[in-house]
Design goal:
Blueprint lengths: L3 H18 L2 E6 L2 E4 L4 E9 L4 E9 L5 E7 L18 E6 L2 E6 L16 E10 L3 E7 L7 E4 L2 E3 L1 E5 L1 E5 L10 E3 L3 E4 L3 E9 L1 E12 L5 E7 L11 E2 L1 H4 L3 E7 L8 E3 L4 E9 L6 E7 L11 E4 L11 E2 L1 E6 L9 E4 L14 E4 L20
Parallel strand pairs: 1-12, 2-13, 14-25, 15-26
Antiparallel strand pairs: 1-3, 3-8, 4-7, 4-9, 4-10, 5-8, 6-7, 9-13, 10-11, 14-16, 16-22, 17-20, 17-21, 17-23, 17-24, 18-22, 19-20, 23-26, 27-28
């Protein structure tokens, strides 16, 4: 006879497994599409464990610089596909701003007191987009406002997003005209550091430039800049600290030679990274904008001076993109770095060991070490 404790544990494990198995599972199909600019693409949204569902609210994100949202069609199911009850009355596909579509649905409670059930891998709806630019667009269920909400038997349940869909427009690289300083979309796990590459377009024969970057300091905490790719561009080219704490980074650079032909970089080249810690909620996001706001009145604002002493900066020279805060649990075999401890007298030297776990078959590694600048030099 098995001990009662073991029976209880087995029962709990079975109960937990049952709950996990009942999560609503979502996926997009196909997972990868390549299309020309101007072409319309269709992406199916499918569900599994859609059992006794009372209501659904799903925000879906996409890259609005590559795709234009055209429609969300659940009324054009094939003959073998069930139609959601109440579709057309209770269903909406709002798109309050470019880059997000919110799908909502619920059946009449009197007609379906126990919710509604669909077979596994049922196509719930089809989203249609037109490719409007070169580049890559990821289409995903996201927890951004108003949030994911799926109700089963009157109780919220978890949603597992098995995969999104990636649309590559044109040659996969955005096309720009004129001088540009470009922010690029990144995804940062909550509590972790992520670095946004800053790239350029028509960076030809430059002598100097200055501009400002802005973000939401309640969602992103500035850490550093790195990976400098211009002569004499260093950490000293970025400041000031009081502005950084409010979500503004001032950038100033000059070619140390100040002689023709100046400095040039191919289109799409990264000139530096700016790194943030994601401190906002999972599903939140922050725009990273580039402009001339934040310089002192005598500073002159944003500019880009070439070797012909022409200012190439225009009102459209700064390209905005988004840092998304996501939740990705680390795998069990994730490489982990830990800083140790040491003590020292005032004015003495402290040596802190850095230890590593799961460091197997690693070819290269990169990480940031921060210190308290008021206590350590």
């Amino acid at each position: 006879m098995k001990p009662i404790t073991n029976l209880l544990i087995a029962g709990l494990l079975l109960f937990v497994h049952t709950l996990v198995g009942q999560n609503l599972q979502t996926s997009f199909s196909p997972t990868s599409i390549t299309a020309s600019v101007g072409e319309q693409v269709s992406v199916e949204f499918r569900v599994t464990n859609f059992t006794n569902i009372n209501s659904v609210q799903l925000p879906i994100s996409y890259n609005a610089s590559v795709l234009r949202f055209d429609s969300l069609d659940a009324a054009f199911f094939g003959p073998d596909d069930p139609v959601l009850p109440g579709y057309g009355d209770s269903t909406t596909a709002s798109h309050p701003n470019a880059g997000k579509v919110v799908f909502t649905w619920y059946p009449n409670l009197l007609d379906y007191p126990d919710g509604y059930t669909l077979p596994a891998n049922t196509r719930l709806f089809t989203m249609r987009f037109t490719v409007i630019g070169n580049g890559t667009a990821n289409i995903n269920v996201t927890s951004m406002s108003p949030g994911i909400e799926v109700i089963r038997n009157g109780t919220p349940i978890m949603t597992t997003n098995n995969n999104g869909s990636t649309v590559t427009g044109g040659n996969g690289q955005p096309t720009y005209v004129g001088f540009k300083i470009i922010a690029n979309q990144i995804h940062i796990p909550k509590g972790h550091v992520g670095c946004m590459p800053i790239t350029v377009n028509d960076f030809d024969s430059l002598w100097s430039m200055q501009f400002a970057m802005h973000w939401d300091p309640l969602k992103l905490k500035y850490e550093c800049t790195r990976a400098y790719n211009l002569p004499d561009l260093t950490s000293a080219s970025f400041g000031a600290q009081n502005a950084i704490s409010n979500g503004t980074l001032l950038v100033g650079w000059a070619d140390p030679n100040q002689l023709p032909p100046g400095v040039s970089r191919p289109d799409g080249t990264k000139i530096f990274d700016v790194c943030f810690t994601a401190i906002g909620d999972q599903g939140a996001n922050s725009l990273v904008t580039i402009d001339g706001v934040g310089f002192p009145a005598s500073g002159g604002g944003a500019e880009a001076i070439n070797s012909s002493v022409q200012d190439l900066w225009e009102s459209t020279s700064g390209i905005t993109d988004t840092a998304y805060i996501i939740s990705i649990p680390p795998p069990a075999n994730a490489v982990k770095y830990d800083a140790g401890r040491d003590t020292a007298m005032n004015g003495g030297i402290a040596c802190v060991p850095v230890k590593v776990t799961n460091h197997s078959n690693v070819t290269n590694a990169e990480y940031i070490i921060t210190t308290n600048a008021t206590a350590l030099a």
